[in-house]
Amino acid sequence: MAGPDPQHIPVRIVVHQASRVLEIEYADGRGFRLPFEFLRVYSPSAEVRGHGPGQEVLQVGKAEVGIDSVEAVGNYAIQPRFSDGHATGIYSWDYLYRLGENHDAMWQDYLDRLEKAGESRHAAGSAAAGAEAAAPADAPEGARAVSRPR
């Protein structure tokens, strides 16, 4: 198995709890701010992706999901524990980079799939159920750094 692209290895990862955004800076100078909800609905776990094409499970009601903790996985990935109990996705450096590069198109695809399925980003019974909330604020309150193993 080939290792991650050296330019796709993060040099800094910060979990912004208040704005629910994972901020990642890479060795190539690029940086991305990935909302927790986006990370959750695009989890690389079998629970979300299934075990083959056509087995993907549409994630609904994840607009308010948080990240309770983030664990390093060797020198190649992180494994977040989400507030809804999901903790099986291992996000490789290359996968996180792809998520950052393709965020806009992937997010629109997710919204389109939700609409087609008649589902919502918001949990049933929440004040915002059925309505699309604004993107997370770009605020660093509650941020904490996550160190990458060396």
Structural descriptors:
150 residues, alpha+beta, NE0471 N-terminal domain-like, four-stranded antiparallel β-sheet, three-stranded antiparallel β-sheet, disordered C terminus
Describe this protein's structure.
This protein has 150 residues and is α+β, with helices and mostly antiparallel strands. It has one domain (7-130, 139-146): 2-Layer Sandwich (NE0471 N-terminal domain-like), CATH 3.30.2020. 23% of the residues lie in helices and 25% in strands. It contains 4 helices and 7 strands. It has helices at residues 36-41, 46-49, 93-101, 103-117, and strands at residues 10-16, 21-26, 31-35, 67-73, 77-82, 91-92, 143-146. The strands form 2 sheets. Strands 3-2-1-7 form a 4-stranded antiparallel beta sheet. It has a 3-stranded antiparallel beta sheet with strand order 4-5-6. It is globular.
Please write out the topology.
Elements: E1 10-16, E2 21-26, E3 31-35, H1 36-41, H2 46-49, E4 67-73, E5 77-82, E6 91-92, H3 93-101, H4 103-117, E7 143-146
Antiparallel strand pairs: 1-2, 1-7, 2-3, 4-5, 5-6
Number of DSSP strand runs:
7
The CATH architecture name reads 2-Layer Sandwich
Shape: globular
Structural class estimated from helices and strands = alpha+beta
Q: What's the number of helices?
A: 4
State the end-to-end CA separation.
20 Å
Could you give a short description of this structure?
The chain has 150 residues and is an alpha+beta fold.
